[in-house]
Amino acid sequence: MSIYKHFSRETFDESGKLIKFELDFEDNFNFAYDVVDAIAAETPDKRAIVWCSTEGEERIFTFEDVRRESCRMANVFAGAGIGRGSRVMLVLKRHYEYWFAVIALHRLGAAAIPATHMLTVSDYVYRLGISRADAVVCTPKGDVTSRLLEAVEETGMSGSCILLTAGNGGADGFRNLCAEAAAAPDTFGRRETSVSDPMLLYFTSGTTGYPKCVIHNYSYPLAHIVTAKYWQRAEEDGLHFTVAETGWAKTSWGKLYGQWLVGSAVMVCDFDNFDPRQLCAIINKYNVTSFCAPPTVYRYLVRKGIPDMPSLRHASTAGEMLAPEVFRAFRERTGLTLCEGYGQTETTLLMANFAAGEPAEGSMGTPSPFYNIELRDLDGNPVAPGEVGEVVVLLPENGRQVGILSGYLDNDSQYESVMRGGVFHTGDAAAMDEKGRYYFCGRFDDIIKTGGFRVGPSEVENVLMEHPAVEECSVIGVPDTLRGQAIKAFVVLAGGYQPSSELQQEIRESSNRSLAEYKWIRLVEFVSELPKTISGKIRKGELRKAT
Q1: What is the pTM of this model?
Q2: Last residue of a domain, which of 417, 446, 475?
Q3: In a 10 Å sphere around its CB, with 0-12 CB exposed, 13-18 middle and 19+ buried, how is residue 358 labelled?
Q4: 409-441 pLDDT, tens per residue?
Protein backbone atom coordinates (compact mmCIF):
# COMPACT_ATOMS: atom_id res chain seq x y z
CA MET A 1 0.00 0.00 0.00
CA SER A 2 1.36 3.43 -0.95
CA ILE A 3 2.21 5.52 2.06
CA TYR A 4 -0.06 8.38 0.94
CA LYS A 5 -3.05 6.32 2.12
CA HIS A 6 -1.88 6.81 5.72
CA PHE A 7 -2.56 10.53 5.41
CA SER A 8 -5.60 10.78 3.12
CA ARG A 9 -9.16 9.67 2.45
CA GLU A 10 -10.50 9.35 -1.09
CA THR A 11 -14.11 9.22 -2.25
CA PHE A 12 -15.05 8.04 -5.74
CA ASP A 13 -18.29 8.01 -7.71
CA GLU A 14 -19.76 4.96 -9.46
CA SER A 15 -17.52 5.48 -12.51
CA GLY A 16 -14.34 5.58 -10.45
CA LYS A 17 -13.88 9.35 -10.62
CA LEU A 18 -12.32 10.98 -7.58
CA ILE A 19 -14.93 13.37 -6.17
CA LYS A 20 -13.53 14.12 -2.72
CA PHE A 21 -10.04 14.15 -1.25
CA GLU A 22 -9.32 14.80 2.43
CA LEU A 23 -6.16 14.81 4.51
CA ASP A 24 -5.57 13.44 8.00
CA PHE A 25 -2.23 14.09 9.66
CA GLU A 26 -0.65 14.88 13.02
CA ASP A 27 0.41 18.38 14.06
CA ASN A 28 4.04 17.28 13.94
CA PHE A 29 3.88 15.72 10.46
CA ASN A 30 7.26 15.98 8.81
CA PHE A 31 7.95 14.60 5.34
CA ALA A 32 11.49 13.54 6.24
CA TYR A 33 10.52 11.36 9.19
CA ASP A 34 6.99 10.29 8.30
CA VAL A 35 7.52 9.56 4.61
CA VAL A 36 11.20 9.14 3.69
CA ASP A 37 12.21 7.31 6.87
CA ALA A 38 8.99 5.29 6.96
CA ILE A 39 9.51 4.03 3.40
CA ALA A 40 13.19 3.37 4.09
CA ALA A 41 12.29 1.31 7.18
CA GLU A 42 9.75 -0.83 5.32
CA THR A 43 11.35 -1.10 1.86
CA PRO A 44 14.94 0.18 2.10
CA ASP A 45 15.85 -0.92 -1.43
CA LYS A 46 12.89 0.83 -3.09
CA ARG A 47 14.05 3.25 -5.81
CA ALA A 48 13.70 6.93 -4.98
CA ILE A 49 15.88 8.74 -7.55
CA VAL A 50 17.24 7.72 -10.94
CA TRP A 51 19.84 10.34 -11.84
CA CYS A 52 22.01 10.85 -14.90
CA SER A 53 24.09 13.66 -16.37
CA THR A 54 25.12 14.79 -19.81
CA GLU A 55 28.66 13.68 -18.92
CA GLY A 56 27.49 10.07 -18.89
CA GLU A 57 27.27 9.71 -15.11
CA GLU A 58 24.49 7.61 -13.64
CA ARG A 59 23.32 7.01 -10.07
CA ILE A 60 20.32 5.21 -8.61
CA PHE A 61 19.40 6.08 -5.04
CA THR A 62 17.09 4.06 -2.81
CA PHE A 63 15.03 5.48 0.01
CA GLU A 64 17.60 4.10 2.42
CA ASP A 65 20.26 6.08 0.52
CA VAL A 66 18.18 9.25 0.82
CA ARG A 67 17.60 8.61 4.53
CA ARG A 68 21.29 8.02 5.19
CA GLU A 69 22.67 10.92 3.14
CA SER A 70 20.09 13.42 4.40
CA CYS A 71 20.92 12.43 7.99
CA ARG A 72 24.59 13.08 7.31
CA MET A 73 23.84 16.50 5.86
CA ALA A 74 21.48 17.26 8.75
CA ASN A 75 24.33 16.60 11.17
CA VAL A 76 26.58 19.01 9.26
CA PHE A 77 23.86 21.68 9.20
CA ALA A 78 23.15 21.23 12.91
CA GLY A 79 26.86 21.52 13.68
CA ALA A 80 26.89 24.82 11.79
CA GLY A 81 24.06 26.19 13.92
CA ILE A 82 21.22 25.56 11.47
CA GLY A 83 18.02 24.52 13.25
CA ARG A 84 14.30 24.99 13.50
CA GLY A 85 13.33 28.31 11.93
CA SER A 86 16.64 28.79 10.09
CA ARG A 87 16.54 29.74 6.42
CA VAL A 88 18.86 28.13 3.90
CA MET A 89 19.11 29.01 0.21
CA LEU A 90 19.68 26.07 -2.15
CA VAL A 91 21.18 26.79 -5.58
CA LEU A 92 21.87 23.27 -6.78
CA LYS A 93 20.72 23.04 -10.40
CA ARG A 94 19.74 19.39 -10.99
CA HIS A 95 22.43 17.87 -8.76
CA TYR A 96 21.20 14.89 -6.77
CA GLU A 97 22.55 16.57 -3.65
CA TYR A 98 19.49 18.84 -3.72
CA TRP A 99 17.29 15.96 -2.58
CA PHE A 100 19.62 15.11 0.31
CA ALA A 101 19.94 18.75 1.36
CA VAL A 102 16.24 19.63 1.29
CA ILE A 103 15.29 16.50 3.27
CA ALA A 104 18.07 17.31 5.74
CA LEU A 105 16.60 20.78 6.26
CA HIS A 106 13.16 19.23 6.81
CA ARG A 107 14.66 17.10 9.59
CA LEU A 108 15.80 20.27 11.33
CA GLY A 109 12.53 22.17 10.90
CA ALA A 110 14.40 24.73 8.80
CA ALA A 111 13.04 26.56 5.74
CA ALA A 112 14.61 25.87 2.36
CA ILE A 113 14.83 28.68 -0.22
CA PRO A 114 15.23 27.06 -3.64
CA ALA A 115 16.76 29.38 -6.23
CA THR A 116 17.95 28.96 -9.79
CA HIS A 117 21.61 29.12 -10.77
CA MET A 118 20.65 31.52 -13.60
CA LEU A 119 20.14 34.47 -11.23
CA THR A 120 22.34 37.54 -11.49
CA VAL A 121 24.19 39.17 -8.60
CA SER A 122 21.37 41.70 -8.18
CA ASP A 123 18.82 38.87 -8.16
CA TYR A 124 20.71 37.13 -5.37
CA VAL A 125 21.08 40.41 -3.47
CA TYR A 126 17.31 40.89 -3.61
CA ARG A 127 16.53 37.35 -2.48
CA LEU A 128 19.13 37.30 0.27
CA GLY A 129 17.94 40.66 1.54
CA ILE A 130 14.28 39.61 1.64
CA SER A 131 14.85 36.13 3.07
CA ARG A 132 17.74 36.99 5.42
CA ALA A 133 19.18 33.53 4.76
CA ASP A 134 21.33 31.97 7.46
CA ALA A 135 23.21 29.83 4.94
CA VAL A 136 23.61 29.21 1.23
CA VAL A 137 24.31 25.83 -0.35
CA CYS A 138 25.24 26.10 -4.02
CA THR A 139 26.74 24.29 -6.96
CA PRO A 140 30.48 24.77 -7.43
CA LYS A 141 30.02 24.77 -11.20
CA GLY A 142 30.23 27.88 -13.37
CA ASP A 143 30.35 31.31 -11.78
CA VAL A 144 27.56 30.73 -9.23
CA THR A 145 29.96 30.85 -6.28
CA SER A 146 31.54 34.13 -7.39
CA ARG A 147 28.12 35.74 -7.92
CA LEU A 148 26.94 34.58 -4.51
CA LEU A 149 30.11 35.78 -2.80
CA GLU A 150 29.58 39.20 -4.38
CA ALA A 151 25.93 39.24 -3.37
CA VAL A 152 26.66 38.22 0.22
CA GLU A 153 29.28 40.95 0.44
CA GLU A 154 26.93 43.54 -1.01
CA THR A 155 24.17 42.67 1.47
CA GLY A 156 26.58 42.87 4.40
CA MET A 157 25.89 39.25 5.33
CA SER A 158 29.47 38.00 5.09
CA GLY A 159 29.77 37.45 8.82
CA SER A 160 26.37 35.83 9.34
CA CYS A 161 25.66 33.74 6.25
CA ILE A 162 27.27 30.27 6.12
CA LEU A 163 28.46 29.33 2.62
CA LEU A 164 28.69 25.73 1.46
CA THR A 165 29.02 23.94 -1.86
CA ALA A 166 27.40 20.63 -2.75
CA GLY A 167 28.34 18.75 -5.86
CA ASN A 168 31.51 17.64 -7.57
CA GLY A 169 34.14 19.93 -6.11
CA GLY A 170 34.57 22.87 -3.75
CA ALA A 171 35.22 26.59 -4.05
CA ASP A 172 37.26 29.24 -2.27
CA GLY A 173 35.29 30.89 0.53
CA PHE A 174 32.87 27.94 0.81
CA ARG A 175 32.80 24.91 3.06
CA ASN A 176 32.43 21.60 1.21
CA LEU A 177 29.12 20.18 2.43
CA CYS A 178 29.54 16.84 0.70
CA ALA A 179 33.03 16.26 2.09
CA GLU A 180 31.87 17.10 5.61
CA ALA A 181 28.75 14.96 5.26
CA ALA A 182 30.80 11.94 4.19
CA ALA A 183 32.48 11.99 7.61
CA ALA A 184 29.27 12.67 9.59
CA PRO A 185 27.04 10.09 11.32
CA ASP A 186 24.28 8.59 9.16
CA THR A 187 21.63 8.75 11.86
CA PHE A 188 19.77 11.77 13.15
CA GLY A 189 17.23 11.71 15.98
CA ARG A 190 13.80 13.16 15.35
CA ARG A 191 13.61 16.88 16.12
CA GLU A 192 10.49 18.67 17.26
CA THR A 193 8.75 20.41 14.34
CA SER A 194 5.22 21.60 13.56
CA VAL A 195 3.13 21.57 10.40
CA SER A 196 2.76 25.32 10.83
CA ASP A 197 6.53 25.89 10.58
CA PRO A 198 7.77 27.48 7.33
CA MET A 199 9.18 24.68 5.16
CA LEU A 200 9.73 26.27 1.75
CA LEU A 201 10.22 29.88 0.70
CA TYR A 202 9.63 30.28 -3.03
CA PHE A 203 10.05 33.53 -4.92
CA THR A 204 7.39 34.14 -7.56
CA SER A 205 8.35 34.82 -11.16
CA GLY A 206 7.66 38.55 -10.85
CA THR A 207 5.55 39.06 -13.99
CA THR A 208 3.78 42.10 -12.50
CA GLY A 209 6.43 43.51 -10.16
CA TYR A 210 9.22 42.40 -7.85
CA PRO A 211 9.09 38.70 -6.94
CA LYS A 212 7.16 37.96 -3.76
CA CYS A 213 8.44 35.43 -1.22
CA VAL A 214 5.81 32.73 -0.77
CA ILE A 215 5.75 30.71 2.46
CA HIS A 216 4.63 27.07 2.41
CA ASN A 217 4.47 25.15 5.67
CA TYR A 218 5.21 21.53 6.57
CA SER A 219 1.76 20.29 5.53
CA TYR A 220 2.41 21.38 1.92
CA PRO A 221 3.80 18.04 0.59
CA LEU A 222 0.55 16.21 1.35
CA ALA A 223 -1.46 18.47 -0.97
CA HIS A 224 0.70 17.21 -3.85
CA ILE A 225 -0.76 13.70 -3.59
CA VAL A 226 -3.48 14.81 -6.02
CA THR A 227 -0.84 16.45 -8.24
CA ALA A 228 1.15 13.24 -8.62
CA LYS A 229 -1.51 10.53 -8.57
CA TYR A 230 -4.46 12.02 -10.42
CA TRP A 231 -2.87 14.51 -12.83
CA GLN A 232 0.66 13.31 -13.55
CA ARG A 233 -0.48 9.73 -12.89
CA ALA A 234 2.74 8.69 -11.22
CA GLU A 235 2.54 4.99 -10.38
CA GLU A 236 3.63 2.69 -7.58
CA ASP A 237 7.14 1.47 -8.57
CA GLY A 238 6.95 3.61 -11.72
CA LEU A 239 9.37 6.31 -12.83
CA HIS A 240 8.14 9.86 -13.20
CA PHE A 241 10.08 12.51 -15.14
CA THR A 242 9.25 16.19 -14.71
CA VAL A 243 11.42 18.67 -16.62
CA ALA A 244 12.36 21.31 -14.04
CA GLU A 245 15.37 22.80 -12.35
CA THR A 246 15.44 22.64 -8.54
CA GLY A 247 15.20 26.42 -8.22
CA TRP A 248 11.56 26.40 -9.35
CA ALA A 249 8.42 25.27 -7.53
CA LYS A 250 7.86 22.78 -10.36
CA THR A 251 10.43 20.56 -8.64
CA SER A 252 8.18 20.33 -5.58
CA TRP A 253 5.27 19.59 -7.92
CA GLY A 254 6.94 16.89 -9.98
CA LYS A 255 10.27 15.67 -8.62
CA LEU A 256 9.78 14.93 -4.95
CA TYR A 257 6.78 15.08 -2.62
CA GLY A 258 3.72 13.70 -4.39
CA GLN A 259 5.71 11.17 -6.40
CA TRP A 260 7.35 9.60 -3.34
CA LEU A 261 4.06 9.65 -1.45
CA VAL A 262 2.39 7.55 -4.17
CA GLY A 263 5.35 5.18 -4.43
CA SER A 264 7.01 6.38 -7.65
CA ALA A 265 10.68 7.06 -8.19
CA VAL A 266 11.71 10.33 -9.85
CA MET A 267 13.88 10.69 -12.93
CA VAL A 268 16.46 13.49 -12.85
CA CYS A 269 18.72 14.51 -15.74
CA ASP A 270 21.44 17.00 -14.84
CA PHE A 271 21.71 19.14 -17.98
CA ASP A 272 22.19 22.80 -18.83
CA ASN A 273 20.96 23.02 -22.42
CA PHE A 274 17.62 21.57 -23.44
CA ASP A 275 17.80 18.95 -26.19
CA PRO A 276 14.48 17.29 -27.13
CA ARG A 277 16.20 14.21 -28.55
CA GLN A 278 18.09 13.81 -25.30
CA LEU A 279 14.86 13.82 -23.28
CA CYS A 280 13.33 11.15 -25.50
CA ALA A 281 16.47 9.04 -25.20
CA ILE A 282 16.28 9.25 -21.41
CA ILE A 283 12.61 8.27 -21.41
CA ASN A 284 13.42 5.18 -23.45
CA LYS A 285 16.68 4.22 -21.73
CA TYR A 286 15.23 4.29 -18.21
CA ASN A 287 11.67 3.23 -19.08
CA VAL A 288 10.01 6.40 -17.81
CA THR A 289 6.30 5.74 -17.22
CA SER A 290 4.97 9.30 -16.80
CA PHE A 291 6.29 12.62 -18.09
CA CYS A 292 5.52 16.26 -17.36
CA ALA A 293 6.99 19.30 -19.12
CA PRO A 294 6.01 22.85 -20.09
CA PRO A 295 4.35 23.33 -23.49
CA THR A 296 7.62 24.73 -24.87
CA VAL A 297 9.20 21.28 -24.54
CA TYR A 298 6.33 19.59 -26.36
CA ARG A 299 6.45 22.24 -29.07
CA TYR A 300 10.13 21.40 -29.69
CA LEU A 301 9.39 17.69 -29.64
CA VAL A 302 6.64 18.08 -32.22
CA ARG A 303 8.82 20.21 -34.51
CA LYS A 304 11.91 17.99 -34.23
CA GLY A 305 10.04 14.72 -34.55
CA ILE A 306 8.91 12.41 -31.77
CA PRO A 307 10.39 8.89 -31.64
CA ASP A 308 8.56 5.86 -30.29
CA MET A 309 8.44 5.87 -26.49
CA PRO A 310 6.90 2.50 -25.58
CA SER A 311 7.31 2.76 -21.79
CA LEU A 312 5.52 6.12 -21.56
CA ARG A 313 1.92 5.76 -20.38
CA HIS A 314 1.00 9.36 -19.55
CA ALA A 315 2.06 12.91 -20.42
CA SER A 316 1.05 16.15 -18.75
CA THR A 317 1.86 19.84 -19.09
CA ALA A 318 1.55 23.16 -17.26
CA GLY A 319 3.20 26.53 -16.88
CA GLU A 320 1.95 28.29 -20.01
CA MET A 321 -0.72 27.91 -22.67
CA LEU A 322 -0.59 24.78 -24.82
CA ALA A 323 -1.11 25.52 -28.51
CA PRO A 324 -3.88 23.38 -30.05
CA GLU A 325 -1.60 22.31 -32.89
CA VAL A 326 0.87 20.82 -30.38
CA PHE A 327 -1.93 19.08 -28.48
CA ARG A 328 -3.16 17.43 -31.68
CA ALA A 329 0.26 16.57 -33.13
CA PHE A 330 1.50 14.93 -29.93
CA ARG A 331 -1.63 12.77 -29.67
CA GLU A 332 -1.44 11.75 -33.33
CA ARG A 333 2.21 10.72 -33.00
CA THR A 334 2.15 9.00 -29.58
CA GLY A 335 -1.47 8.08 -28.94
CA LEU A 336 -1.19 9.97 -25.64
CA THR A 337 -3.43 12.90 -24.83
CA LEU A 338 -1.58 15.77 -23.16
CA CYS A 339 -3.29 16.58 -19.87
CA GLU A 340 -3.01 20.22 -18.88
CA GLY A 341 -2.91 21.31 -15.27
CA TYR A 342 -3.05 24.65 -13.51
CA GLY A 343 -1.79 26.10 -10.28
CA GLN A 344 0.56 28.77 -8.93
CA THR A 345 3.69 29.13 -6.84
CA GLU A 346 1.26 30.02 -4.04
CA THR A 347 -0.69 26.77 -4.43
CA THR A 348 -0.53 23.14 -5.39
CA LEU A 349 -2.57 21.78 -8.31
CA LEU A 350 -5.86 23.69 -8.55
CA MET A 351 -7.26 22.25 -11.78
CA ALA A 352 -6.35 19.53 -14.24
CA ASN A 353 -7.53 17.09 -16.82
CA PHE A 354 -7.83 14.17 -14.44
CA ALA A 355 -7.71 10.44 -15.11
CA ALA A 356 -11.46 9.81 -15.27
CA GLY A 357 -12.24 12.39 -17.96
CA GLU A 358 -11.26 12.91 -21.59
CA PRO A 359 -9.09 16.06 -21.80
CA ALA A 360 -10.55 18.83 -23.90
CA GLU A 361 -8.25 20.67 -26.28
CA GLY A 362 -7.12 23.92 -24.68
CA SER A 363 -8.82 23.27 -21.34
CA MET A 364 -7.18 23.42 -17.92
CA GLY A 365 -9.65 20.72 -16.94
CA THR A 366 -11.83 20.70 -13.86
CA PRO A 367 -11.16 21.81 -10.27
CA SER A 368 -9.23 19.51 -7.98
CA PRO A 369 -11.57 17.68 -5.57
CA PHE A 370 -9.25 18.88 -2.82
CA TYR A 371 -10.25 22.53 -3.33
CA ASN A 372 -13.50 24.49 -3.50
CA ILE A 373 -13.04 26.69 -6.58
CA GLU A 374 -15.27 29.27 -8.25
CA LEU A 375 -15.09 31.97 -10.91
CA ARG A 376 -16.08 35.41 -9.62
CA ASP A 377 -16.41 38.91 -11.03
CA LEU A 378 -14.83 42.07 -9.62
CA ASP A 379 -17.68 42.40 -7.12
CA GLY A 380 -17.16 38.89 -5.81
CA ASN A 381 -20.21 37.37 -7.49
CA PRO A 382 -20.07 33.96 -9.24
CA VAL A 383 -20.14 34.23 -13.04
CA ALA A 384 -22.23 32.13 -15.43
CA PRO A 385 -20.75 29.54 -17.82
CA GLY A 386 -19.11 31.22 -20.78
CA GLU A 387 -18.34 34.41 -18.86
CA VAL A 388 -14.84 35.39 -17.76
CA GLY A 389 -14.14 35.57 -14.05
CA GLU A 390 -11.28 35.37 -11.58
CA VAL A 391 -10.28 31.94 -10.29
CA VAL A 392 -10.73 31.96 -6.52
CA VAL A 393 -10.38 29.26 -3.86
CA LEU A 394 -13.02 29.30 -1.12
CA LEU A 395 -11.31 28.84 2.23
CA PRO A 396 -12.44 26.82 5.27
CA GLU A 397 -13.94 28.71 8.20
CA ASN A 398 -10.55 28.90 9.92
CA GLY A 399 -9.11 30.59 6.82
CA ARG A 400 -6.35 28.01 6.39
CA GLN A 401 -6.17 25.58 3.48
CA VAL A 402 -3.45 22.95 3.11
CA GLY A 403 -1.55 23.58 -0.11
CA ILE A 404 -2.31 27.31 -0.19
CA LEU A 405 0.46 29.63 0.94
CA SER A 406 0.60 30.42 4.64
CA GLY A 407 1.93 33.92 4.00
CA TYR A 408 4.22 36.23 2.06
CA LEU A 409 7.45 36.80 3.95
CA ASP A 410 7.32 40.18 5.72
CA ASN A 411 4.39 41.28 3.55
CA ASP A 412 1.22 40.86 5.60
CA SER A 413 -0.67 43.45 3.58
CA GLN A 414 -0.11 41.51 0.33
CA TYR A 415 -1.22 38.29 2.03
CA GLU A 416 -4.35 39.93 3.42
CA SER A 417 -5.11 41.28 -0.04
CA VAL A 418 -5.02 37.88 -1.77
CA MET A 419 -7.01 36.33 1.11
CA ARG A 420 -9.71 39.01 1.25
CA GLY A 421 -13.36 38.06 1.45
CA GLY A 422 -12.77 34.53 2.71
CA VAL A 423 -11.26 33.37 -0.58
CA PHE A 424 -7.80 33.08 -2.07
CA HIS A 425 -7.56 35.34 -5.12
CA THR A 426 -5.34 33.86 -7.83
CA GLY A 427 -5.51 36.96 -10.03
CA ASP A 428 -5.99 34.63 -13.02
CA ALA A 429 -8.95 34.86 -15.35
CA ALA A 430 -10.78 31.88 -16.81
CA ALA A 431 -14.10 30.86 -18.33
CA MET A 432 -16.08 27.67 -17.76
CA ASP A 433 -18.07 25.73 -20.35
CA GLU A 434 -21.37 23.92 -19.81
CA LYS A 435 -19.51 20.70 -18.90
CA GLY A 436 -17.64 22.42 -16.07
CA ARG A 437 -14.31 22.57 -17.90
CA TYR A 438 -12.18 25.67 -17.36
CA TYR A 439 -10.26 27.64 -19.98
CA PHE A 440 -7.44 30.01 -19.06
CA CYS A 441 -7.86 33.60 -20.27
CA GLY A 442 -4.75 35.26 -18.83
CA ARG A 443 -4.10 37.37 -15.79
CA PHE A 444 -7.28 39.07 -14.60
CA ASP A 445 -5.58 42.44 -15.06
CA ASP A 446 -4.62 41.46 -18.63
CA ILE A 447 -8.19 40.93 -19.85
CA ILE A 448 -8.82 43.12 -22.90
CA LYS A 449 -12.03 45.17 -22.93
CA THR A 450 -12.84 45.92 -26.54
CA GLY A 451 -16.12 47.19 -28.00
CA GLY A 452 -18.00 46.22 -24.85
CA PHE A 453 -16.61 42.67 -24.87
CA ARG A 454 -14.04 40.99 -22.61
CA VAL A 455 -11.35 39.02 -24.43
CA GLY A 456 -8.76 36.74 -22.85
CA PRO A 457 -5.34 37.22 -24.51
CA SER A 458 -4.57 33.51 -24.48
CA GLU A 459 -7.43 32.53 -26.81
CA VAL A 460 -6.12 34.98 -29.42
CA GLU A 461 -2.53 33.86 -28.85
CA ASN A 462 -3.50 30.23 -29.42
CA VAL A 463 -4.89 31.13 -32.85
CA LEU A 464 -1.81 33.18 -33.72
CA MET A 465 0.45 30.24 -32.87
CA GLU A 466 -1.26 28.20 -35.59
CA HIS A 467 0.46 30.35 -38.24
CA PRO A 468 3.78 28.81 -39.37
CA ALA A 469 5.54 32.21 -39.33
CA VAL A 470 4.83 32.73 -35.61
CA GLU A 471 7.50 31.42 -33.25
CA GLU A 472 6.24 33.29 -30.18
CA CYS A 473 3.60 35.91 -29.54
CA SER A 474 1.88 37.99 -26.91
CA VAL A 475 -1.39 39.90 -27.14
CA ILE A 476 -2.40 43.05 -25.23
CA GLY A 477 -5.05 45.72 -25.38
CA VAL A 478 -4.00 49.21 -26.52
CA PRO A 479 -6.03 52.45 -26.32
CA ASP A 480 -8.50 52.88 -29.16
CA THR A 481 -10.96 55.78 -29.49
CA LEU A 482 -13.61 53.65 -31.19
CA ARG A 483 -13.43 50.41 -29.21
CA GLY A 484 -11.90 51.50 -25.90
CA GLN A 485 -9.11 49.02 -26.52
CA ALA A 486 -7.85 47.39 -29.70
CA ILE A 487 -6.14 44.02 -29.78
CA LYS A 488 -2.46 44.21 -30.63
CA ALA A 489 -0.16 41.24 -31.23
CA PHE A 490 3.58 41.21 -30.72
CA VAL A 491 5.14 38.47 -32.83
CA VAL A 492 8.57 36.84 -32.89
CA LEU A 493 9.03 35.31 -36.33
CA ALA A 494 10.08 31.72 -36.92
CA GLY A 495 13.25 30.98 -38.82
CA GLY A 496 13.07 31.62 -42.55
CA TYR A 497 10.58 34.51 -42.30
CA GLN A 498 11.42 38.19 -42.73
CA PRO A 499 9.39 41.13 -41.39
CA SER A 500 7.22 42.88 -43.97
CA SER A 501 3.92 44.73 -44.13
CA GLU A 502 2.60 41.94 -46.36
CA LEU A 503 3.41 39.31 -43.71
CA GLN A 504 1.81 41.46 -41.01
CA GLN A 505 -1.39 41.59 -43.04
CA GLU A 506 -1.29 37.88 -43.83
CA ILE A 507 -0.86 36.89 -40.16
CA ARG A 508 -3.61 39.26 -39.05
CA GLU A 509 -6.11 38.18 -41.70
CA SER A 510 -5.33 34.49 -41.37
CA SER A 511 -5.83 34.61 -37.60
CA ASN A 512 -8.97 36.74 -37.79
CA ARG A 513 -10.65 34.16 -40.01
CA SER A 514 -10.59 31.84 -36.97
CA LEU A 515 -11.73 34.47 -34.46
CA ALA A 516 -15.07 36.03 -33.66
CA GLU A 517 -15.16 39.58 -34.99
CA TYR A 518 -14.94 41.19 -31.56
CA LYS A 519 -11.70 39.26 -30.98
CA TRP A 520 -10.05 40.41 -34.19
CA ILE A 521 -6.41 41.45 -34.11
CA ARG A 522 -6.14 45.05 -35.27
CA LEU A 523 -2.37 45.55 -35.00
CA VAL A 524 0.65 43.30 -35.48
CA GLU A 525 4.18 44.31 -34.51
CA PHE A 526 7.25 42.18 -35.17
CA VAL A 527 9.84 42.06 -32.38
CA SER A 528 13.13 40.22 -32.06
CA GLU A 529 12.22 38.96 -28.59
CA LEU A 530 9.55 39.30 -25.91
CA PRO A 531 10.35 40.66 -22.44
CA LYS A 532 10.39 37.75 -20.00
CA THR A 533 11.06 36.89 -16.40
CA ILE A 534 13.99 34.59 -15.67
CA SER A 535 11.50 31.70 -15.55
CA GLY A 536 10.39 32.47 -19.10
CA LYS A 537 7.04 34.14 -18.44
CA ILE A 538 6.18 37.08 -20.67
CA ARG A 539 5.99 40.49 -19.03
CA LYS A 540 2.88 41.97 -20.62
CA GLY A 541 3.24 45.04 -18.41
CA GLU A 542 6.45 45.97 -20.23
CA LEU A 543 4.73 45.55 -23.59
CA ARG A 544 1.94 47.88 -22.46
CA LYS A 545 4.44 50.46 -21.24
CA ALA A 546 6.27 50.38 -24.58
CA THR A 547 3.08 50.96 -26.58
Answers
A1: 0.87
A2: 446
A3: exposed
A4: 999 999 999 999 999 999 999 999 998 999 988
